[in-house]
Amino acid sequence: MKAGELSFLKNELLFGRNPVAGIVAVEPVPGDQMRVFRRENGKLVSEDQPFRPFLWVSEAALLAQLQAKHEIVELNGNGSYRHLVWLNSWRDSLAARKYLQKATNYSGNDPASPYFLLSDPVQQHLMATGQTSFKGMRFEELHRLQLDIETDCGENYQFSNPQRESDRILCVALSDSRGWEHFLAHEDETKLLEELVAVIRERNPDVLEGHNIFKFDLWYLANRARLRKVKLALGRDGSELSVHSSRIQIAERTINYPKYEIFGRHVVDTFLLVQAYDVSSRELESFSLKEVARHFGVASPKRTYLAADEIAATFRSDRERVKAYALDDVRETRAVADLLSQSYFIQAQIFPFAYQDVVVRGNATKIDSLFLREYLARRQSVPQPDAARPYAGGYTDIFFTGVARNVWHCDVQSLYPSIILSFDVLPKRDELGIFRSLLADLRQFRLQAKAAMKDAKQQREREHYDALQATFKILINSFYGYLGFAQAHFGDYNAAETVTAKGREILTQMIEWLKERGAQLIEIDTDGIYFVPPKKEADKLEDQLQATLPRGIDVEFDGKFRAMFSYKAKNYALLDENGRLTLTGGALRSRGLEKFQREFLEEFLVLVMTDKVDDSPALLERYREAIRNRAWPVEMLMKTETLADSLETYQAKVRESARNKSAPYELALKAGRGYQPGDQISFYVTGTTRKVSAYENCKLASEFDPKQRDENVDYYLDKLDQLYAKFAPLCGLKVQRTSTEDPRQGSLF
Question: Which of 216, 395, 654, 714 has its CA at a distance of 20 to 30 angstroms from the CA of residue 304?
Fold first, then answer.
């Protein structure tokens, strides 16, 4: 291990005070113990550690009538939670919570509550002991097993139902991070399940991975095992799966899912990983495994493809083909997890959460856990979260719409973290000064990790340091958000407001300076400015601008573009010198647009940004002909939408006139399948006239028959024409303008 890496691990604020290495799982066991599984000299060992749960209270008198045995410790400092309460068992902890709820009429999760209890015993143990997972380990040392099942359904049914006797598991594909692969198929489903349990217990992985493994594979396996009276004893102690309902918020999406837990192992769903990835990239056509694998370039050229409705019949006629298909699924799952889960592996070395939970916890919650861990270790009182309130955000503006040439971009590096450190904008209730120390250390650690990545000789070593620096970057950029996080014990809305105000001040200063020198401003977005540089002394612009900025605020001219199409704030297209097009903003790259619209828009924008705008009418006619001739596969026409509400909630809102009917929900209701929030529905529009109600004229994309096509040609022609009419005027094309047109439209050369 490199010396620089060792310096990371010695930082107790970040990695915890306990140096125990190789922890791969922590589980509560009877007798008020925690079983800790560790890798030691290549072998898996376990030990039981004593566990004492705790909670914080504002006043010791709150516990005067508590019957459960407890010890109260008075804490230092001025925080609201001035007393730490140690209890003898988790049962006592739950009894204390019940007692306090009744005595105070507060839930322990309410920011104004006079007591605070962490509801996860594993988090409590890791926090109290200073331990974290995977210390001293590399990602490749984690034993990860990938799982994928294929199912059959009874005649006259479209979807397989694990509770229906006629349905069944056809086969199971398995692989792991050590190069092992296995395929299970048996006519007797009971024996198939028993063999699966035996194989997983023999391989003894630390992690189970799958794509949509929570909502499909484990859900289906658990239900079939119950039906066949098979004990699905996948736990390291021989226990069965446990499950409870859970939800995760990923940007604007709320995903409900059954959270399965396996004793001594973690479950990681790549379906959730790719959604978290897509929050910033917004590049994925859909979240299906095949689409994701193609996007990341990990799909083999020889990959076997089968439509969902072909699998069962193919299994009966050509089992080897289904085997090849299923094994390709687990290979792609492993490859996607290789790319997306390394950062979470490193986060598990930092935060006092189980690896499985690190994946689904928000960044602000994770940062809060670092404060709580250190304040607990130093016996320092903890403040209550501030009452939530709104505050002004970052500076965004648009100065020009249309096509601009020779566009530059300047960016303030880590604007908000830089402001926090340069101007000491710190949360007032952090009496130990952890906020500043952590943020400063993380910035330094990231520089060291990037340098180590650059010097690394081996690919795995480069990947390790890249994951480190990416993790540090995520945390650095989360510190500002933590200040305004409603559940942050050390948040500070005044500080958050000061940061954004200073950011607006700095960016306004930069804009005025650029204008004075003849630059033409196009757009500003929180920490970066797009502009056409002045003709004189452009090569000196960066150094001159840097000289005007406060110390610690560093500007970087990080992009030069052949052309830019500016549509509206935070919605623009960039064409670089190599002809590569990048789209930003929902108006240009929304999944609300069908694929043919997105592809048309990309081709159209390339034409107008490469001085070929006169070719646009021909492009439009080519797309119109493809629609009229029914030349495209359904993937070009279908729309994929994510269900935000449960079907019951949707129906209630429709009844109460709180929302209109919607195609994906109506199709989900007709399908008779247990769709949940977060599920995706792909559909296309049928009918024969331009104006139709989509919810009354739609079909699932899986129902599309290429031999008897029924897509609504006039409907899709109208959508194409409307898209063209929306953007053509901004590019100098003669399409009738509306009265609301922006007078600033034009072209910059």
Answer: 216
* Same domain (yes/no): 695, 556: no
Q: Which range marks the domain in which residue 539 is found?
A: 390-426+492-583
Q: What Å distances lie between residue 390 and 393, 485, 494, 502, 546, CA to CA?
A: 9, 11, 10, 17, 32
Q: Percentages helix, strand, coil for the chain, rounded to the nearest 5?
A: 45, 20, 35
Q: What distance in Å separates the CA atoms of residue 129 and residue 108, rounded to the nearest whole number?
A: 23
Which segments of the chain have a pLDDT < 50? 1-4, 6, 736-749
CA distances from 345 to 57, 133, 257 (A): 33, 9, 22
Compute the radius of gyration of the chain from its Cα atoms.
29
Q: pLDDT of 22-35, one tens digit each? A: 999 999 999 899 99
Specify whether 550 is located in the same domain as 649: no
**Other Cβ atoms within 10 Å of 242 Cβ, number:** 12
Contacts of 512 (CB under 8 A, 6+ apart): none
Give me the helix-helix angle, 363-377 and 121-129, nearest 10°: 50
Count how many domains the chain has: 3
Q: Do residue 512 and residue 567 come from a single domain?
A: yes
DSSP alpha helix (H) spans, 517-581: 541-547
Are 499 and 563 found together in one domain? yes
**133: CB partners within 8 A, 6+ apart:** 23, 24, 25, 26, 348, 349, 354, 355
The single-letter code of the amino acid at 200 is: I
Q: Is 456 left (phi over 0), alpha (psi -120 to 50) or beta?
A: beta
Whole-angstrom Cα distance, residue 607 to residue 586?
A: 21
| Together in a domain, 273 and 235 | yes
Query: Based on the domain organization, do 622 and 552 belong to the same domain?
Result: no
Are 187 and 332 part of one and the same domain?
A: yes
Burial class of residue 561 (count of CB atoms within 10 Å of its CB; 0-12, 13-18, 19+): buried
Tokens encoding 462: 């480069």
Check which CATH number belongs to the domain holding 527 and give it.
3.90.1600.10
Of 524, 559, 583, which residue sits at a domain end?
A: 583
Q: Is 20 helix (H, G, I), strand (E, B) or coil?
A: coil
Q: How many other C-beta atoms can be found within 10 angstroms of the C-beta atom of residue 392? A: 10
Name the pTM for this structure: 0.89
- CATH code of the domain covering residue 663: 1.10.132.60
Residue 619 located in a structural domain: yes
**Phi and psi, residue 565, nearest 5°:** -105, 110
Helix intervals (H) in 282-351? 289-296, 311-317, 319-340, 342-350
Residue 473 counted as domain residue: no
Burial of 240 (C-beta count, 10 Å sphere; 0-12/13-18/19+): middle
User: At 219, which CATH number?
Assistant: 3.30.420.10
Predicted confidence at residue 734, as pLDDT, reads 74
The answer to whether residues 184 and 248 belong to one domain is yes
Distance of alpha carbon 547 from alpha carbon 559, whole angstroms: 20
